[in-house]
Design brief:
mainly beta, four-stranded antiparallel beta sheet, six-stranded antiparallel beta sheet, globular, single chain, 130 residues
Length: 130
């Protein structure tokens, strides 16, 4: 999907997924879903080719992968840079692309700051930008 479609949407909720394996702590979030005031969801994650995936899709349920651990999907509290922007409208977006990969970063601007989403070595990285 075009990230420009996020402009004007009010961020109502943020959901994330984490991989749990053995006694290790949470790894991730591996996926983030931005849910707007109408209940529409946009999924952000890193692709296997290290691109940043931005697609319209709803959060999935938890699932177990047996000996490889399990995935937990939950609403995010303070775990990501998006937490402080819940209730705000996206006022602008900026994308970065790499020639052989495609989209590698997306920066969303809110009235009180920006959040940078990027695929970094195949992992989703979220950071607040002043």
């Amino acid at each position: 999907m075009s990230a420009r479609g996020l402009v004007g949407r009010r961020l109502a909720e943020v959901v994330g997924s984490w991989h749990l394996y053995g006694r290790d702590g949470l790894v991730g979030p591996l996926d983030v879903w931005l849910i707007d005031g109408r209940g529409d969801a946009v999924h952000l994650t890193a692709g296997s080719d290290w691109c940043l995936i931005v697609e319209a899709s709803k959060p999935h349920a938890d699932y177990d992968m047996g000996g490889s651990g399990r995935f937990m999907v939950r609403a995010i509290g303070e775990e990501t840079s998006f937490a402080r922007h819940v209730g705000e409208d996206v006022s602008a977006v900026r994308e970065e692309h790499a020639p052989s990969i495609g989209r590698v970063a997306l920066e969303l601007t809110f009235p009180t700051g920006r959040v940078r989403c990027e695929s970094w070595a195949g992992d989703l990285r979220l950071t607040s930008v002043a």
